[in-house]
Amino acid sequence: GAFTYMNTLIGERITGEAADPFTGNRHTERGHELEGAARSLYCDREDVQTHQVGIILNHGIGYSPDALVGDNGLTEIKTKLPKLQVDVILGGEIPKEHIAQCQGGLWVSEREWIDFICYWPGMPLFVKRAYRDEAMIRKLSERVKTFYEILDERMNRVLGIAA
Q1: What is the CA angle 86-91-97, rounded to 5?
Q2: Which fold has domain 33-145?
């Protein structure tokens, strides 16, 4: 969880060396393979053009959108197995487990809206637009600030012990 990630960051800061990154699993590999098809279907359906970027850095954190849309939009693309795609389509909303990621993306990118796209080949494409939720963004900002305060305190303790 958060402390494992925090400890990884502390180790990186102290040693100056990057930790071994997460290289993925079959689900993330599948997502990368299908993302282009999902983006293409989205562009055709919504009659928009997207622009891919790497990482956006802001507020001391980074966010990697799946694409930018125009001057104010983003996309977040998920590929879900058919049984999960059915749940998303029937639910009609962005699944709860993706809301913080979407709002965090809006916060970091300073964009106005995000289209959450859920895709599986042969299944209907799901697209749901979400706008900035300033109350949630404030909470995310406060949590990130607290995370870094705790990280600094823990790192100072480690350095004090190691010295």
Answers
A1: 95
A2: Lambda Exonuclease; Chain A (3.90.320)
